[in-house]
Amino acid sequence: CKEELSQVAKGQSAQLRDFSEFSRRLDVMEKASEDSVSKSREHLRDTSKSLSERISEVEERLLRTAEQHDVSLLSVRNELVRVAGAAQDMAPEVEQACRRLIGE
Which long-range contacts (CB under 8 A, 24 or more apart) does 77-86 make? Predict the structure, then answer.
């Protein structure tokens, strides 16, 4: 009976060692998983920050381009107004010249 108890105790001791080793490995895997998640989160934060900076740069460039475009459009508009004004001023002279040509 003592020998049977000794065998059972040895078996339970072996199972306890196996369970303890399994638990240790599980802890190692859990720690590795936490490290991996932490690194992934850090990578996502860095990527998000980088993308935000890039978006800001593109927005600034678009604003500068839009401002330049607006200045260009304003310049063209002003030139058109100037030319239209000059054409109005010259209309009587052009009309007289046309009458002379037709009359000749």
Answer: none
Instruction: Look at residue 100 in the predicted model and tell me its pLDDT.
Output: 85
pLDDT band at 21 (very low <50, low <70, confident <90, very high): very high
Q: pLDDT category, 32, cuts 50, 70, 90?
A: very high
Contacts of 84 (CB under 8 A, 6+ apart): none
Letter string b/e over residues 42-68, b meaning 16 or more CB atoms within 10 A of that residue's CB: eeeeeeeeeeeeeeeeeeeeeeeeeee
How far apart CA 104 and CA 96 sit, in angstroms, is 12
Average pLDDT, the chain: 89
pTM above 0.70, yes or no: no
* Residue found by looking up tokens 């991996």 in the block: 36
CA distance 94 to 72: 31
Determine the residue type at 73: L
